[in-house]
Write a structure and sequence with these properties.
Residues 14-71 form the HTH lysR-type domain. The protein is built from 13 helices and 11 strands. The protein has 2 domains: 8-99, Arc Repressor Mutant, subunit A, CATH 1.10.10; 104-319, 3-Layer(aba) Sandwich (D-Maltodextrin-Binding Protein, domain 2). The radius of gyration is 32 Å and the shape is elongated. It has helices spanning 8-12, 16-28, 31-37, 42-56, 72-100, 112-129, 142-150, 198-201, 214-225, 240-248, 258-265, 300-311, 316-319, and strands at residues 61-64, 67-70, 104-110, 133-139, 156-159, 170-185, 206-208, 234-236, 254-257, 274-276, 284-293. The chain has 322 residues and is an alpha/beta fold.
């Protein structure tokens, strides 16, 4: 038997029912009992055993008055057969879980607000109810996420359709506007000033996205529409971590998604070290949506996780407010 010919036994005629028979023979020690276990007649079992010994060119059993005893070769084949059959059974179960969407890998993208408001709660639920689904999350801007979606790196994302994207390449499920809050550190002078308004915020440094960022454009347009100038002193950064660090350690003001302000103002985030100003509470970024590629269906695992997110969606009208 050539050592490098990995399918030699298969080409010789070895079949799974041969392996099942050997495993049953080792378990029962009798051909009749093994045959009954496998739901076949004893003559059929005896013929299978003889065929197997012939194709292997080796004796697999010794007879005695009470039944049979497997030879060392027979025990080896039975042990390997049980292992192979067990792996096949597990493969079948894994395929069933993959098909049912309870196992697999999901690649999700999201802009910052929905990442905290929708994706994070869905992940927490999946860790309990779907522990075999592996979830990879990419948080970024809509244009970055759109490129990743079209290149096949994401199953879907929550964000907006970038101007450069071909609308025919995707499907959209509108979710709603993304409210914006102005945040400052706890104890900021504006929190101690009754009746403070948007113009008062302009006396302080602002921390915002780099020029051209959607949230920055929204905040600047909101100011201009109300006859106010763009802040004179702006620190530009795309890092939420740096934004929060600067807010927590200075008198700067920052516009962020309201869900981000709520999260980091609570115990899960900065534990009350930042607060939302009761100013410009109607500021909101244009509506975002759940975006999927039009030319490929989600995998069962992606569809399952998508269902968790969709279950958390409220009617758009309910999400548009503070």
């Amino acid at each position: 038997m050539p050592g490098d010919d990995r399918d030699f036994l298969i080409r010789q005629g070895l079949k799974l029912r041969h392996l099942r028979l050997m495993a049953a023979l080792e378990e029962t020690g009798q051909i009749s009992a093994a045959a009954a276990f496998l739901n076949m007649t004893q003559p059929v079992a005896s013929r299978l055993l003889a065929d197997l010994e012939r194709l292997l060119g080796a004796s697999l059993h010794d007879r005695h008055p009470r039944g049979i005893t497997l030879t060392p070769t027979g025990r080896l084949l039975a042990a390997r057969g049980r292992r192979l059959l067990s792996e096949l059974d597990e493969t079948g179960r894994e395929i069933a879980r993959l098909t049912a969407g309870t196992r697999g890998r999901v690649h999700v993208g999201s802009v910052t607000g929905p990442a905290l408001e929708l994706v994070l709660p869905a992940i927490r639920e999946a860790r309990v109810t779907l522990p075999e689904i592996e979830i990879a999350v990419q948080v970024g801007t809509s244009d970055e996420l759109g490129e990743r979606l079209l290149s096949g790196e994401l199953d879907f994302y929550i964000g907006r359709l970038h101007d450069s994207m071909d609308a025919r390449a995707v499907t959209l499920r509108p979710i709603g506007p993304e409210p914006i809050s102005l945040i400052v550190r706890t104890g900021h002078p504006l929190t101690r000033r009754p009746g403070a308004d948007l113009s008062d915020c302009l006396r302080y440094d602002w921390v915002m996205q780099p020029p051209g960022g959607l949230l920055r454009r929204t905040a600047e347009a909101y100011l201009l529409e109300r006859g106010l100038p763009v802040p004179d002193r702006i620190v530009s950064t795309s890092s939420l971590l740096l934004t929060l660090a600067m807010i927590g350690g200075s008198n700067a003001v920052a516009p962020v998604a309201r869900s981000v302000a709520r999260f980091h103002g609570g115990r899960d985030g900065m534990d009350g070290r930042i607060v939302q100003l009761p100013i410009a509470t109607d500021m909101a970024v244009v509506p975002y949506a759940l975006v999927q590629p039009a030319d490929r269906a989600p995998s069962p695992a992606a569809q399952t996780f998508l269902g968790l997110i969709e279950a958390k969606l409220s009617p758009p009208a309910a999400r548009a407010g503070p």
